[in-house]
């Protein structure tokens, strides 16, 4: 490699910074959706880099389903405080007050009400015209064709047939009132890239990613952690301590853990390279139906 | 610490240093493109176990490859497409080896998906063009190659697939390569490579095939890992298109950009466009510390030593290396929208962080993507490609796409639907309406007044002539050169001061790097016209013998040289006469861009003198009489 060649991580970083700045320049009211997960953490670091030495000129928004792992919420609040972020936490108040949750309503209703509906309401409430998401194209088949600037209509819906051509690094940011763009600055990153970057940059992540003894029950082959007393007793009773970690984070009843000894980033990567289970399969919600991610995207979920 | 842990650390340390190769795969499902990609992904061990399990389940229901694993099914994304069994959009795939990370833009092959391929090609460093060994070079191959060349991809691999179906026969491979070489020679692709393989059986994909021991080159993956692409970037011309102005507090005013080309260095003097104000670079700031220099495609922030007004869309450059600055330019345009072009619409144009409006002044021609034939059209439909002239509301700072992708590319956005309806690549030639505004008469006079000590009158008195250009046009073989040389001789003998310019003399030096494509031809003639202008300004008569086939080009010549000085002589000979006269030019099918044959020759409408060489019209006397009558030479 000659002197003027970037490594793949630095090239991906430069691409993402360019995308993030472009949104800040072209949109009136952008927001960065922050899921507390590792991809979000990388995305937030990239935003900090994009505007250094200035502050990130848009808020972060976390859609709280009220069923996130406790450690996630703790991490979110501490990190936001330490960094001085403008953080909006939005949740579906109605859904929460009427007690919607995965145990009582099933994963489909819960996801729809507490995640999808909450997200759409949050975006509408603040009239955001662009929302960053930390999705990556290699996560799932239907995302392989996703644009970096993904157009959403007035109802936040995604029409796979009505997406704009995207060439070079020129992004079309024109929207009519009410329409919006979802922006995916880390589209071209793989899971390995994310871990390498976290390691390279020393980015703090939620401890749930590291293996530890945790109270676990097996539900339909998924390892579910008992995170609070909302889990029905008859299930929670079967919990046993097991050394596990999480490859993705979400609502605790819907997020399966894996048996693991990996308690450092190096070990996580090593495990990833040798243990072959692709990451999204530990998300219970995907088992609903084939092409389910595509369906969710059409409805406005990421 | 265990030994394994050290290994993974070393692995990660090394892995972080990999570079990135973006590639495009072009071909159709039938060529085994998806199978090739599937195998690259699979064999490079980046496929996870459960994806494979899902695949085996899917294959039973909709597989197309019998009992074997259908690698193609790994790739097709959206449900509808899977049911149709074809991929209809650009899908991005990722894989890595311990040498490189790869991003594949996987695009469908049929003609109706030209726009998808153009999209995938826009970010690729390299293209794999798939050929079915049982079919050889077909129309689709030519179309794909043309698009790859149009989008400026510098490296092509011709993957001759399905070698297993032709018994791994070297002759089949060699014939296909030969065929392709002949075709690709007309296009602008500097690096072409050939690999025989069988994606289905795995020969020469990752592992070298022992069934083709006659092939001594690299297997596909090995080739992709080693191909050298980093020098493809333009490190020569600093183009720093300001994307974002960063003003966190009163003391810091930074200008952020992803460097389009060139190297930005701390302390260097720079110029801001369009204001042309100069300053020096005070710092190159990043989150990870200050830099002494930065290069493409880094995204950095610079500060300047002076309070210069800079906003988004401005371009920071070195003062001795400016881009073109203009509102008028020519471009190759690809129409991407389902709805045909309405040329009366004022589009939004987005170019190098600049947003303004653009209108299409003229459609010069449409290029048939299969035959490369040009034809006249009034508008473009979906997937059509051609050359247009555009005018923007605000000046843009651009370079020819060929030289600089980042400052030569733009998109057009429809003002009502907001859709990206077209994408364009700027051509390295000034447009007709640009030239008069750039080099106006008043401008020229100013320059002359400032420098010259000899007046026009003095020149005229000295030479007994007025500076003028006799421009001889006509097809190859119409006798232009013969005529021009005898005209020169006669004028010279009569005491005139003349300079003769013809194709071979100019192309041997001044236009050495230019070819015969319409773009280069236009640039070549522009240079000739500029030389004429300089000589005419100093009282000298120039005789030019050039085909100059296109009326628009001739109009440009007039703009440069000046209407009063430009005198067109048209050698009006029939194509048959010319073919007889110069058979070597017309009979050799490998020669491209022959005016009157495969590119148009516009009959000049404003010739001062039209001669008929077939009927003895070769005598310069008529021209000499014309010059005398116009008091060009002699004046007295």
UniProtKB/TrEMBL annotation, chain A:
EC assignment: 2.7.7.4
Gene3D superfamilies per record: HUPs (3.40.50.620)
Pfam hit, one: PAPS_reduct
Superkingdom of the organism of origin: Bacteria
Keywords, ordered alphabetically: ATP-binding, Nucleotide-binding, Nucleotidyltransferase, Transferase
Catalytic activity reported: sulfate + ATP + H(+) = adenosine 5'-phosphosulfate + diphosphate
Pathway: Sulfur metabolism; hydrogen sulfide biosynthesis; sulfite from sulfate: step 1/3
A GO biological-process term: sulfate assimilation
Record domain Phosphoadenosine phosphosulphate reductase: where: 29-256
Molecular function (Gene Ontology), one example: sulfate adenylyltransferase (ATP) activity
InterPro entries: PAPS_reduct_dom, Rossmann-like_a/b/a_fold, SO4_adenylTrfase_ssu, Sulfate_adenylyltrnsfr_sub2
Family: Belongs to the PAPS reductase family. CysD subfamily.
HAMAP family in UniProt: Sulf_adenylyltr_sub2 (MF_00064)
Self-association and partners: Heterodimer composed of CysD, the smaller subunit, and CysN.
Function: With CysN forms the ATP sulfurylase (ATPS) that catalyzes the adenylation of sulfate producing adenosine 5'-phosphosulfate (APS) and diphosphate, the first enzymatic step in sulfur assimilation pathway. APS synthesis involves the formation of a high-energy phosphoric-sulfuric acid anhydride bond driven by GTP hydrolysis by CysN coupled to ATP hydrolysis by CysD.
Protein name: Sulfate adenylyltransferase subunit 2
Taxonomic source organism: Sunxiuqinia dokdonensis
UniProtKB/TrEMBL annotation, chain B:
Residues engaged in binding GTP: 27-34, 106-110, 161-164
Xref: PROSITE patterns: G_TR_1, G_TR_2
Domain Tr-type G: 18-232
One BP term from GO: sulfate assimilation
Keyword Metal-binding included in the entry's annotation: no
Enzyme Commission code: 2.7.7.4
UniProt entry tagged with the keyword Lipid metabolism: no
Pathway: Sulfur metabolism; hydrogen sulfide biosynthesis; sulfite from sulfate: step 1/3
Catalytic activity: sulfate + ATP + H(+) = adenosine 5'-phosphosulfate + diphosphate
Subunit text: Heterodimer composed of CysD, the smaller subunit, and CysNC.
Sequence similarity: Belongs to the TRAFAC class translation factor GTPase superfamily. Classic translation factor GTPase family. CysN/NodQ subfamily.
Biological function: With CysD forms the ATP sulfurylase (ATPS) that catalyzes the adenylation of sulfate producing adenosine 5'-phosphosulfate (APS) and diphosphate, the first enzymatic step in sulfur assimilation pathway. APS synthesis involves the formation of a high-energy phosphoric-sulfuric acid anhydride bond driven by GTP hydrolysis by CysN coupled to ATP hydrolysis by CysD.
Protein name: Sulfate adenylyltransferase subunit 1
Organism: Sunxiuqinia dokdonensis
């Amino acid at each position: 490699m000659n002197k003027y060649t970037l490594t793949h991580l630095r090239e991906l970083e430069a691409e993402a910074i360019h995308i993030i700045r472009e949104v800040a320049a072209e949109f009136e009211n952008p927001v960065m959706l922050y899921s507390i997960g590792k991809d979000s953490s990388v995305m937030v670091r990239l935003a900090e880099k994009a505007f250094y030495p200035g502050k990130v000129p848009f808020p972060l928004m976390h859609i709280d389903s009220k069923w996130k792992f406790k450690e996630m919420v703790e991490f979110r609040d501490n990190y936001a405080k330490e960094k001085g972020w403008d953080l909006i936490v939005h949740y579906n108040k109605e859904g929460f007050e009427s007690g919607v949750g995965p145990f009582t309503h099933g994963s489909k209703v819960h996801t729809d009400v507490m995640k999808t509906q909450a997200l759409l309401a949050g975006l509408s409430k603040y009239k955001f015209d662009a929302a960053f998401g930390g999705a990556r194209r290699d996560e799932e088949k239907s995302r392989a064709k996703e644009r970096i600037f993904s157009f959403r209509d007035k109802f936040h819906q995604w029409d796979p047939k009505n997406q704009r051509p995207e060439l070079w690094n020129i992004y079309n940011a024109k929207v009519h009132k009410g329409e919006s763009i979802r922006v995916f600055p880390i589209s071209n990153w793989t899971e390995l890239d994310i871990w390498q970057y976290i390691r390279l940059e020393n980015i703090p992540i939620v401890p749930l990613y590291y293996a530890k003894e945790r109270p676990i029950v097996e539900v339909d082959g998924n390892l579910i952690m008992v995170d609070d007393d909302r889990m029905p007793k008859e299930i929670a009773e079967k919990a046993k301590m097991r050394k596990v970690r999480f490859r993705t984070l979400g609502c605790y009843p819907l997020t399966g853990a894996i048996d693991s000894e990996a308690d450092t980033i190096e070990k996580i990567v090593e495990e990833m390279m040798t243990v072959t289970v692709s990451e999204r399969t530990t998300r219970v919600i995907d088992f609903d139906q084939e092409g389910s991610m595509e369906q969710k995207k059409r409805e406005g979920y990421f | 610490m265990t030994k394994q842990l050290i290994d993974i650390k070393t692995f990660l340390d090394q892995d972080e240093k990999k570079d990135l190769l973006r590639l495009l795969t072009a071909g159709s499902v039938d060529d085994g493109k998806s199978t090739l990609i599937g195998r690259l992904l699979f064999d490079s061990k980046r496929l996870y176990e459960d994806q494979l399990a899902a695949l085996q389940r899917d294959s039973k229901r909709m597989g197309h490859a019998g009992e074997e694993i259908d690698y193609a099914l790994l790739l097709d994304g959206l449900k509808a497409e899977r049911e149709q069994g074809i991929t209809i959009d650009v899908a991005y795939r990722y894989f890595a080896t311990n040498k490189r990370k790869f991003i594949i833009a996987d695009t469908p092959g049929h003609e109706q998906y030209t726009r998808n391929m153009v999209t995938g090609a826009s970010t690729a460093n390299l293209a794999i063009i798939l050929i079915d060994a049982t079919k050889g070079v077909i129309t689709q191959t030519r179309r794909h190659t043309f698009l790859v060349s149009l989008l400026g991809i510098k490296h092509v691999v011709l993957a001759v697939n399905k070698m297993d179906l032709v018994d791994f026969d070297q002759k089949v491979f060699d014939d296909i390569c030969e065929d392709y070489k002949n075709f690709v020679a007309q296009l602008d692709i500097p690096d072409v490579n050939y690999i025989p393989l069988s994606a289905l059986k795995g020969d020469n994909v990752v592992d070298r095939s022992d069934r083709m021991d006659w092939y001594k080159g690299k297997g596909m993956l090995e080739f992709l890992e080693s191909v050298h692409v980093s020098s493809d970037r333009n490190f020569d011309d600093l183009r720093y298109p300001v994307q974002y102005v960063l003003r966190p507090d009163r003391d810091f005013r930074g200008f952020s950009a992803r460097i389009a080309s060139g190297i930005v260095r701390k302390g260097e003097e720079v110029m801001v466009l369009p204001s042309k104000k100069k300053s020096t670079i005070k710092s190159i700031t990043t989150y990870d510390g200050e830099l002494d220099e930065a290069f493409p495609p880094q995204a950095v922030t610079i500060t300047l030593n002076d309070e210069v007004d800079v906003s988004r869309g401005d371009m920071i450059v070195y003062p001795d290396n400016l881009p073109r600055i203009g509102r008028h330019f020519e471009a190759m345009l690809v129409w991407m929208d389902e709805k045909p072009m309405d040329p009366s619409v004022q589009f939004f144009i987005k170019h190098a962080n600049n947003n303004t409006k653009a209108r299409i002044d003229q459609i010069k021609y449409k290029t048939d993507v299969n035959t490369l034939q040009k034809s006249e059209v009034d508008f473009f439909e979906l997937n059509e490609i051609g050359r247009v002239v555009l005018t923007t509301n605000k000046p843009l700072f651009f370079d020819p796409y060929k030289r600089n992708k980042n400052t030569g590319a733009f998109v057009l956005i429809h003002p009502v639907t907001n859709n990206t309806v077209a994408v364009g690549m700027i051509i390295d030639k000034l447009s007709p309406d640009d030239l008069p505004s750039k080099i106006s008469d008043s401008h020229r006079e100013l320059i002359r007044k400032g420098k010259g000590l000899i007046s026009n009158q003095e020149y005229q008195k000295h030479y007994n002539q007025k500076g003028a250009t006799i421009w001889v046009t006509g097809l190859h073989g119409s006798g232009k050169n013969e005529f021009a040389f005898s005209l020169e001789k006669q004028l010279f003998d009569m005491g005139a001061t003349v300079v003769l310019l013809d194709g071979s003399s100019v192309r041997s030096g001044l236009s050495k790097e230019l070819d015969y494509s319409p773009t280069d031809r236009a640039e070549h003639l522009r240079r000739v016209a500029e030389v004429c202008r300089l000589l005419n300004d100093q009282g000298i008569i120039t005789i030019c013998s050039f085909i100059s086939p296109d009326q628009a080009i001739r109009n440009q010549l007039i703009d440069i040289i000046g209407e009063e000085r430009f005198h067109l002589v048209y050698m009006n000979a029939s194509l048959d006469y010319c073919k007889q006269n110069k058979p070597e030019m017309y009979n050799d099918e490998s020669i491209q861009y022959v005016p009157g044959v495969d590119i148009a020759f516009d009959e000049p409408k404003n010739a001062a003198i039209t001669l008929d060489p077939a009927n003895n019209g070769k005598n310069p006397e008529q021209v000499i009489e014309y010059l005398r009558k116009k008091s060009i030479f002699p004046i007295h």
